[in-house]
Design brief:
Bound molecules: adenosine-5'-triphosphate, magnesium ion
Number of strands of chain C: 10
Distance between the termini of chain C: 38 Å
Order of helices and strands of chain C: EEEHEEHEHHHEHEHEEHH
Number of domains of chain A: 1
CATH class of the largest domain in chain C: Alpha Beta
Order of helices and strands of chain A: HHHHHHHHHHHHH
Number of strands of chain A: 0
Structural class of chain A: mainly alpha
Helix content of chain C: 25-40%
Largest sheet of chain C: 6 strands, mixed
Distance between the termini of chain A: 30 Å
Strand content of chain C: 25-35%
Strand order of the largest sheet of chain C: 6-7-8-3-9-10
Oligomer: heterotrimer
Number of helices of chain A: 13
Radius of gyration of chain C: 18 Å
Radius of gyration of chain A: 19 Å
Amino acid sequence: MFKYILVNELRALLYTWKSMVWFLITSVIFSFASYLFLTDKELSLLDQSEMLWLLSKVIIGTALMIITVDASSTITGEFEKETAESLFLTPLSLKDFVLGKLLASLSLWIAIFLIAVPYIIVVSAGSHVTAAFIMFVLMLGTMLILGFQMMIFGISFLFRSSKNTLTTSLVILLALVLPATFSSTLKNNPLSHFLSVTNPIDNVFSSLDNVLVDYQTTLTGNLKYVFPVLIFCFAAFAFMLYSTKLFKRSGVVKND
Amino acid sequence: MHRKSFLTLLVISLTVCFASANSLPADSGSVCSPPLSMSILSKLALDGIAGDYVTVSAEIKNISAKTITNITTYLSLADEETKLPVDLEDWSAEKGLFIGTIDAGQKFPLEWKIHFVKAGKYSLIIIAEIQGETNVLTSRVTHFAVSPKHNLNPGQVLPVALGMPLFLLVIMMFAAYTRRSRLMKSQ
Amino acid sequence: MNIAVKTENLSKLYGQTMAVDRLSLEVKNGEFFGFLGPNGAGKTTTIRLLTGIIRPDEGTAIIQENLPAGSIEAKLIAGVMPESRGLYEWMTAREYLSLFAHLYSVHNAIKATDEKLSIVGLSHEKNKRIGAFSRGMKQRLCLARALINKPKILFLDEPTLGLDPKGQEDIQILLKALNADGVTIFYSSHLLNEVAMLCSRIAVIHHGKLVAQGTISQLQEQTGLTNSGLKDIFLKLTGD
Ligand SMILES: Nc1ncnc2c1ncn2[C@@H]1O[C@H](COP(=O)(O)OP(=O)(O)OP(=O)(O)O)[C@@H](O)[C@H]1O
Ligand SMILES: [Mg+2]
């Protein structure tokens, strides 16, 4: 049953130009970044591996931003536009509804990833990490973004308002991204060290650093970074489960 | 912290050693007269590009008349610009090699695999320690440079950077056009 | 198989207000059941309880003899035109309806889609974007969606609201025909003339409570307004 929700969502992405605008923004950001790598005096002096790491951050960061904005409205939109009631009048289960929405949102990430691949290939040309770069961005990005989507869906079922969901998600995203950008200077402090080893974005960036700069391209060499991201995914899933329980209890039309 | 003080100590002892070694040419009776000699063999092969894997090969020779036991050799690398020792763990090298025993007049080959992680100017020395001795022995300093990797080829990047947005724009127009014409046709 | 809808002490509390207050109703199969009440009486809330959109705080609701309201079996045999008329504006009518045909696992979804579109008179607009539809066209599309799974029972929440006289009449004719085919209709409306003309039995609720139930002549008897129309009866029953 989720397949109809998925197909419908994919159609909406295509027909409403929403996704196309996202893709265009994505490619412009990637183009701008790689153009800077070439022409900017300081950036072009960077070691190639540093440059690759920067590119991987740009890819993951852009995708996170777009997915956050998009996922914040995909479920809440059904409530705000009063289309949810008609959907739940059918035998469609909440599970299929969420699964369809989740896969649609995930396919947006896959599309962003596919747009990134040519950039990865040309920027990493000559290094021997192209394949590892692609694999790790796909693996870590998928896990991180899946976790974010589930978290955002959980928030969506609580608020049922795109504005509140988007604001909350952006605040969380910011709270996780900011420390990740200057974590290396803070790692000596035990509290910030703890925050950094539990921060999923931080771990994804550290793992990419490990792969692209230190050439640790095996999965086992990156387990200590992958594991916290997995934990984040499970936590987000548990939160979403809890939030859908509350949703089921209060019904499709909530008490205003 | 620990490593740093160790190195400072090392440098001090080396200076003392060198100073005395220079003033007193090879004299077997001297305090600092080294029973071992070490030489780095791969000086030329060392300069490289960031990302390269290279092998540092060296040789240790017992130039004394006695068998020496319990020898351990270390590789030490310092960044010449920051004057800081390089953490060899990042450079994926095994820092210490336990040699054991070398008979009088015998040579022993040494090999370290290192990975040039970052561009820069570096100096490398090999240190040998004999258990029970307070003085360590060092090789001469070898300087080498790791140049940054400049593989970004504008000829490759620009077509993608310009082409991708255009490509997506074309797809966008095409999708809009086909949907529109489909809706028009079926009306 | 005689009972189409049966509720016992059905109650729903919204904050401090009892939107539905110990409501006990019974609708027989094949009836055209009018569900009346002033604004805020609890009609929409009752329909939401009967279709499983919300859960009751107390009481039970059963569809078609023994199916709990909101169960998949109950959903499969019910067609609903809810108060919220949200549609996916970017879709065409045909895309929209076929989505629901699939969600109901309707056999031969495309054929059923075209059939329902022609029943509600939207054949010519089926490939138009819903965003470009007039209110009446959207209302018809909602009705088509309610019919897509060939329901045995239809819950309609003010289906002719905002329609022009022609539109109202079209829908009335259609509903009569469906009822003649044996479809039970649970009809909530404000338009008393319409209800008087269509419905075989009527329930009136006020402040969430059932205040009267029966045929028009039974209601006339109950209120002592033997010669009056439904309007007077309604005003008497719901006057505070
Ligand atoms: N989602 C909600 N949250 C809080 N209160 C609600 C909600 N929906 C309805 N109510 C309250 O419940 C009562 C019944 O509302 P309901 O919508 O069922 O009335 P109605 O009979 O359908 O009215 P109308 O004829 O205006 O459509 C009203 O007092 C309303 O304020
Ligand atoms: Mg209502």
